[in-house]
Write a structure and sequence with these properties.
By secondary structure, the chain is an alpha+beta fold. It has two domains: about 140 residues, Butyryl-CoA Dehydrogenase, subunit A, domain 3; about 160 residues, Nuclear Transport Factor 2, Chain: A (Roll), CATH 3.10.450.50. Helix content is about 50%, strand content about 15%. A seven-stranded mixed β-sheet has the order 1-4-5-6-7-2-3, with helices on both faces. A hairpin with a 7-residue loop joins strand 2 and strand 3. The chain is elongated. It starts with a helix and ends in a 15-residue tail after the last helix.
């Protein structure tokens, strides 16, 4: 007969085997690495307060628990109205980027941003209602049956299906088209960096789509900026390059991006959406508070330190 401590240790091992997957679920729902980690930890606490002998499928049980925790957090955000949604001429709140070295994602990050969950898609997820986001993420991204999602949302399976369907239409309609060839995207980003550093306005215009949209999230301390059009974005890129002593290629949510430094601190994380070989979206996190929380350091061009766990 197993002792209580042996049972607890075995339960902890089973939970740890699911942790990476649970973090990826929570990250897609919340767009915050720290809040995702908190949601996973809350799932562990709820597991320890429950009777695990009655749980037939621990992975499914934990996923729905994380769903409930995230739903509560999303509803609390809405109630406080602290989350700014992207507006044509308003503020922009970008999700936390997952930053890795430019060579390849490490296994933990691979799970976190699998299925091409780029910043542009995460921005669209921010526009969904809490219930829509939970239904869409659990069903469309993690294949959780509607019968299991319904109790989380306190709705019928049919109503949950309608929520996911509505969210799916909004996501498909708002997510910009993007190239998938990582090597080609890396070339475009490298060309953008070279042109910005050298102040080559014409070269920047060549890699920017005429209708390019650049969004920056500066948080509470730095004004957010939204710019449209190749000429305006090119001018801003040249101006910013003068402030960044070092800008290096990285992977941002699994896609080529740029990490910029000045005086040993991170100035920005840039995420690119590239379609037909041109940059159509440029999402830039410049919020010094959130950048500091990500725990990124200079390292070398192949090995920036990723988010603290």
């Amino acid at each position: 007969m197993e002792s209580s401590s042996d049972e607890q240790r075995a339960l902890a091992e089973r939970f740890e085997a699911e942790r990476a997957q649970l973090r990826s679920v929570a990250y897609r729902m919340l767009g915050s690495l720290a809040e995702a980690e908190d949601a996973v930890q809350e799932a562990w606490l709820r597991l320890t307060r429950s009777d695990p002998t009655g749980v037939r499928n621990l992975a499914a049980w934990l996923t729905t628990v994380v769903g409930r925790v995230c739903l509560d957090q999303l509803r609390a955000r809405t109630a406080r109205r602290e989350e700014e949604l992207p507006e044509p001429d308003g503020s922009v709140r970008l999700p936390d980027p997952v930053v890795s070295g430019s060579a390849a994602l490490d296994p933990e990050h691979e799970v976190l941003v699998a299925d091409s969950v780029g910043i542009a898609l995460m921005v669209v997820l921010e526009t969904l209602s809490p219930a829509e986001r939970v239904a869409f993420v659990l069903h469309d991204m993690f294949e959780v049956p509607f019968e299991e999602i319904a109790p989380v949302l306190d709705r019928t399976p049919a109503a949950t299906r309608q929520l996911a369907s509505r969210a799916r239409r909004r996501v498909q309609g708002a997510t910009p088209a993007a190239d998938t060839d990582r090597a080609r995207k890396r070339e475009v980003v490298a060309a953008f960096l070279t042109a910005a550093r050298s102040g080559d306005f014409d070269a920047l215009l060549a890699v920017l789509d005429p209708g390019v949209l650049a969004r920056s999230d500066g948080g509470a301390l730095v004004p957010s900026v939204l710019r449209r059009g190749a000429a305006e974005v090119a001018g801003q890129a040249i101006a910013f390059a003068r402030f960044a002593a070092d800008a290096r290629p990285v992977l941002v949510n699994g896609s080529p991006g740029v990490l910029a430094f000045a005086d040993g601190r991170v100035l920005s994380v840039m995420s690119f959406t590239i379609h037909d070989g041109r940059i159509t979206r440029l999402d830039i996190l410049t919020d010094p508070v959130r950048l500091a929380a990500l725990g990124l350091t200079g390292g070398n061009s192949e090995d920036p330190v990723g988010p603290r766990r």
